[in-house]
Amino acid sequence: MQAKKRIGLIAHDARKRALREFVRAHAGKFGGHELFATGTTGRMIEKETGIPVRRFKSGPLGGDQQMGALIADGGLDILIFFTDPMTTMPHDVDVKALVRLCTLYNVVLACNQASADFVLTSAYFDGAYERAVPSYEDYVNRAIS
Q1: Which residues contact 28 (CB under 8 A, 6 or more apart)?
Q2: pTM higher than 0.90 for the full model?
Q3: I want to staple 42 with a disulfide (CB 3.0 to 4.6 A). Which of 10, 55, 89, 108 is the partner?
Q4: What pLDDT band is residue 30 in, cutting at 50, 70 and 90?
Q5: Where are the alpha helices (DSSP H) in the chain?
Q6: Are 63 and 56 in contact (CB under 8 A)?
Q7: CATH dotted code for 6-116
Q8: What stretch of H or E contains 99?
Q9: Pairing status of strand 78-82 against strand 53-55
Q10: 17-27: per-residue pLDDT in tens?
Q11: Is 38 annotated in some ligand binding site?
């Protein structure tokens, strides 16, 4: 029994082709899940695979923050983000924020094809997985002096 996952897809410009080819090669795996992506990446994946993708704005235009809000609201299980380690991005702070949010809310994060391959072939990908989300209640309710 396949448990439907909510999967975010993002790629820097130099890695869009690799992500497109990755999703196309694994279209059968992605087809039963709910996909979210930043603008150009989402349009490209939808066009290439025919799989519906909920598209946000382009990453530097706010799409990264929209994906981050989805993570913070508990609306994402996995983020596959093919990053370009060789190019400085004007929105590097947005990228760091996504990594931080995935860590904070215990969301699976794959930043290259190898880690994404491991995610897709994990027994948890098609099966049930109860993600432990830490409680930050003590932090939120701390006394500020």
Answers
A1: none
A2: yes
A3: 55
A4: very high
A5: 16-25, 27-30, 39-49, 63-72, 92-104, 113-121, 123-126, 137-140
A6: yes
A7: 3.40.50.1380
A8: helix 92-104
A9: unpaired
A10: 999 999 999 99
A11: yes
